[in-house]
Design brief:
35% helix, 516 residues, globular, 18% strand, alpha/beta, 20 strands, Rossmann fold, six-stranded mixed beta sheet
Length: 516
C-alpha cells in the first residue's frame, strides 16, 4: 500500500479483521515515501505514529529500507516466522529516488515526460541523472521503438473500425468547423473561484485537489485557505464532515474521481446528506471512459445511476468548460444536494457565454451549415422557446458527448440531408420532460447517447416517454452507450472510438436507424 492510501477507513477495518482472526498468512508492505497526490502526508492527513498504530491493531511490525532489496527480503523472512499475527513491513522510500527533478516531488504523480528522449524532464535527462550503467540510451531507444510499434497496431485497429464517409469530419482535420479544446473541469475551477466570494462556501479536498481544479478556490485568494480542508483519500469521512458543515449553515463542495465520490461513499450520500436534504455540492469529476490511461477502476460509468435515484438529489452534466462554469455558479444557489459531473480530458468548446443555460430546461441545438468555427454552425434555443422544424431525427445527449451528437448532426446533414434536433440535456435531474415529450411527438425517432453504462440516462428518458399520457403518436427509440462492460486503459479518443461513442459511430447508427 501507499502511505496515502492509509487515509482510507477500509484499510483499518481490514487491519482490525486480520488481527482478530490471527491471519498470519497476510503481510502488508507499506511504501512510506511521505507523499501523496495533494502533497506531504503530514500536511494532507497525518498518519504518524505509524508503527504504533499497526501494533495497536494487533500486527507485528518490521521496518526496512525500501531501496535495499536485501533488507526487504530479510524482513520478509522474519515475517514468515511470525505466528497468529498478521505482519506489516514499513518500507522507507524516497519517491523518484535518483532522478533530481522528480525526487521527493509530489507533483510527479502520474506525470510522464512530454517526449520520449529529449528536453527537460525527459528519459535522456533521467538516465544521465541516474548514471545507470545497466540501462543505456540505446536500450531506451529500443524500448520506445517497441512502444511505438505497438501504438501503430492500436492505431490501425481503431482506424479500421471507424465508419467511413465521403470526407473526414473529425475535430480540426479541415480548414473549416474549427473547435477549441478545453477540459470542462477548467470551467468548474473558474466557477468555484467566483462562488468562493460567498463566505459560506467551504471546500473539502480528497487528494486530487489540483487535478479537479478545486485549488482554484484559494489559488488567487490566500485568505480563503482557512475555508479549504484536505481530508485525503477518505470519501466517507469527507461526506459526513460536509453534512455537518451544511447543518451549521455552510455550503460545502466535496469532490474526487466519480467512481469514488459517487461510489465508495454512496451510503453516506444517501443517509447523511440526501435523507436530511443537506446543502452539499458533490463534484463527480473525471467521469466516463475518456479519463483514459487510468483504466476501468477509475472510469466512472455507473455514477449517474448511483446518484439519480437518491431522493432530493439534483444532477448537472455540463457539455463543455463554459457550461461547467455556469453550472458551478448555479449549483451554489440551489438548495439541497447537487452533483455536477465533469470530464478530465480536453473536449470541444461548443457553447458561448451568450448560449442560454437554465436549470431544468434543455437546450435545442440545430445545425445550419458549414462555418469557420464549429459553434457558429449551430443555433441554440431553450426548449421552451423552440418550434418544430419537422426534423427527421432527435438525438439527446448530456455532457461532453453532446459535441459528438452535434458533429453527428453535421455528418448526417452533409452526407444524407438528414435534419437533426439535438437536445442538450445538461440538467439530468430534474430532467426537462416537456422537451422529451415534444421530441417524441414532433420527431418520433429518438436516439440517446451517453458516456456511461447504456441506459443510465437513456432508460430515464425512455421511461418519461412511456409513462406520459401526452405522447400521441407511434415512436421509435434507440440507446447508445457503454454496453455492460468496464472501461479500459487507453488514450481518450482511442477509447471513445473503441466504445463507439464518437460522431462517426453515432452517424452510422443513425443512418441504420433511419433505414437510409
Amino acid at each position: 500500500m501507499g502511505d496515502g492510501e492509509l487515509d482510507e477507513g477500509s484499510v483499518w477495518e481490514a487491519a482490525m479483521s486480520a488481527s482478530h482472526y490471527k491471519l498470519d498468512n497476510i503481510i502488508a508492505i507499506i511504501d512510506r515515501n511521505n507523499l501523496q497526490i495533494d502533497g506531504p502526508t503530514s500536511d494532507v492527513m497525518e498518519i504518524e505514529p505509524l508503527r504504533e498504530k499497526w501494533e495497536a491493531f494487533g500486527w507485528s511490525v518490521f521496518c526496512c529500507d525500501g531501496h535495499d532489496m536485501q533488507d526487504i527480503v530479510s524482513k520478509l523472512h522474519f515475517a514468515y516466522e511470525v505466528k497468529e499475527k498478521p505482519v506489516a513491513i514499513i518500507a522507507d522510500t524516497i519517491k523518484g529516488k535518483g532522478v533530481s527533478f522528480a525526487e521527493n516531488n509530489y507533483r510527479y504523480h502520474g506525470i510522464a515526460p512530454k517526449d520520449g528522449l529529449e528536453g527537460k524532464e525527459s528519459l535522456r535527462e533521467a538516465l544521465e541523472d541516474i548514471n545507470c550503467s545497466s540501462f543505456s540510451m540505446e536500450d531506451a531507444k529500443k524500448l520506445l521503438c517497441k512502444v511505438s510499434r505497438y501504438q501503430e497496431k492500436v492505431d490501425a485497429l481503431v482506424k479500421k473500425n471507424i465508419p467511413k464517409f465521403s470526407a473526414d469530419y473529425f475535430w480540426n482535420r479541415s480548414s473549416k468547423m474549427k473547435a477549441e479544446m478545453v477540459p470542462n473541469r477548467f470551467g468548474f475551477g473558474k466557477g468555484l473561484d467566483f462562488v468562493g466570494e460567498d463566505k459560506r462556501v467551504v471546500v473539502l479536498g480528497a487528494d486530487i485537489t489540483e487535478s479537479i481544479k478545486m485549488n482554484s478556490f484559494y489559488q488567487e485568494h490566500k485568505e480563503r485557505k482557512n475555508r479549504f480542508f484536505s481530508l485525503g483519500i477518505a470519501e466517507q469521512n469527507i461526506t459526513t464532515v460536509a453534512a455537518g458543515l451544511a447543518k451549521e449553515g455552510k455550503i460545502p463542495f466535496i469532490g474526487s474521481y466519480g467512481v469514488f465520490i459517487a461510489g465508495r461513499n454512496w451510503d453516506q450520500i444517501r443517509t447523511t446528506i440526501c435523507y436530511n436534504n443537506y446543502n452539499v455540492k458533490i463534484i463527480d469529476a473525471h467521469g466516463g471512459i475518456s479519463v483514459g490511461p487510468d483504466g476501468g477502476t477509475h472510469q466512472a460509468l455507473e455514477d449517474i445511476s448511483n446518484l439519480y435515484y437518491l431522493p432530493n438529489m439534483k444532477i448537472l452534466v455540463p457539455a463543455d468548460s463554459i457550461e461547467a462554469e455556469k453550472a458551478t455558479i448555479l449549483m451554489k444557489d440551489l438548495n439541497g444536494p447537487v452533483a455536477i459531473r465533469l470530464a478530465r480530458e480536453a473536449t470541444p468548446l461548443i457553447t458561448s457565454h451568450e448560449t442560454p443555460f437554465e436549470f431544468g430546461k434543455a437546450n435545442i441545438i440545430r445545425y445550419r451549415g458549414i462555418k469557420e468555427n464549429f459553434t457558429d454552425a449551430f443555433d441554440y434555443k431553450l426548449s421552451c422557446d423552440y418550434s418544430s422544424e419537422n426534423e427527421d431525427l432527435a438525438i439527446i445527449a448530456s455532457g461532453p458527448v453532446l459535441s459528438e451528437a452535434m458533429r453527428a448532426a453535421y455528418i448526417l446533414k452533409e452526407e444524407y440531408n438528414v435534419e437533426t434536433r439535438i437536445i442538450n440535456n445538461h440538467t439530468v435531474k430534474p430532467m426537462d420532460e416537456d422537451a422529451i415529450i415534444k421530441a417524441v411527438n414532433e420527431v418520433g425517432k429518438i436516439i440517446t447517447i451517453e458516456e456511461h453504462q447504456v441506459g443510465g440516462i437513456g432508460n430515464i428518458i425512455a421511461g418519461i416517454a412511456a409513462k406520459n399520457h401526452k405522447v400521441s403518436k407511434f415512436y421509435r427509440f434507440k440507446m447508445i452507450g457503454v454496453k455492460d462492460r468496464f472501461g479500459e486503459s487507453g488514450q481518450p479518443w482511442e477509447l471513445m472510438n473503441i466504445f463507439g461513442l464518437t460522431a462517426e459511430y453515432l452517424a452510422e447508427s443513425s443512418r441504420e436507424f433511419l433505414d437510409l
